[in-house]
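Reviewer 2 asked us to include a model.

Predict the structure of this chain.
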Amino acid sequence: MYLTIIETAEFLDVPEEYVKKMIRGNKIRAVYDGEQYLINKNQFSTHLEQMEKYRAMIQDYLSEPIPDDPDVKDED
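Predicted model (structure tokens):
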């Protein structure tokens, strides 16, 4: 499935200018049909999977309880 620059920006939740910059820098593959750039949606599947793994990792880290410090001494 091919997306326009506007649709790609909405799909990735980034500004349109960022998508255009990535196309110019050959970071995103796109086809120019004479009127507009068309971007294959499937090229982002790996990126989205990695982002989900990263979010899960951060969530696990943030939900981990703080361990008791063994060096804390009771002043009594």
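Strands lie at 2-3, 30-32, 37-40. The mean pLDDT is 89. We have added this to the supplementary material.
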